[in-house]
Amino acid sequence: MFRTGVQAEIGRTEETGVEVVGEAADVDQAVTVITATRPEVVLLDVHLPGGGGVEVLRRCAPLMAAAESPVRFLALSVSDAAEDVIGVIRGGARGYVTKTITGADLVDSVFRVQEGDAVFSPRLAGFVLDAFASTDAPPVDEDLDRLTQREREVLRLIARGYAYKEIAKQLFISVKTVESHVSAVLRKLQLSNRHELTRWATARRLV
């Protein structure tokens, strides 16, 4: 419903000058569509199912680095959490706006990113500058960066004591998928079991 609303708002080409060339419901679809259409600007959902916006940025890094006609990304999210904002900006996004933005401002943001500018919602601009310029900014957690957005969600719920069935119900995924995510998290973090995982998450105040 939200994607339909955004497309209706910005996709009136004669009025906005924006042509919507594709849309996607998850990470795999997004990478496929972006690779096939090579849009000038991608409006990227930070919490896109299948790994999140950071995973899309990682897989589309060559397109962003192209010498000619690079694909630029503008993150769009309901979240203004520090880890979300910094994660996608470090991943290569040119801006970050929240879903409270008006249609006219969103169109303006798309064109500004297309021209190479960095665009942030007013509340986030100062925060982003502080986070990247301050000597007190928290260090990059390379271990945490190895995890996709979905893996982080599963990690937090495991650390909070949720059973696999409860996690599956809360995230609207199968128990088998939960098990796959847990295995991936343990492998990436070089941990042996959920008890070690809980201690790891607690030590980083992720619970």
UniProtKB/TrEMBL annotation:
Pfam family, any one: GerE
Annotated Response regulatory domain residues: 1-114
SUPFAM superfamilies hit by this protein: C-terminal effector domain of the bipartite response regulators (SSF46894), CheY-like (SSF52172)
Domain HTH luxR-type: residue ranges: 140-205
Keywords, comma-separated and alphabetical: DNA-binding, Phosphoprotein, Transcription, Transcription regulation
UniProt cross-references to InterPro entries, sorted A to Z: CheY-like_superfamily, NreC/VraR/RcsB-like_REC, Sig_transdc_resp-reg_C-effctor, Sig_transdc_resp-reg_receiver, Tscrpt_reg_LuxR_C, WalR-like
Modified residues (4-aspartylphosphate): D45
Protein's UniProt keywords contain Ribosomal protein: no
Keyword Aminoacyl-tRNA synthetase: no
Entry-linked PANTHER family: NITRATE_NITRITE RESPONSE REGULATOR PROTEIN NARP (PTHR43214:SF41), TWO-COMPONENT RESPONSE REGULATOR (PTHR43214)
Name listed for the protein in its UniProt record: Response regulator transcription factor
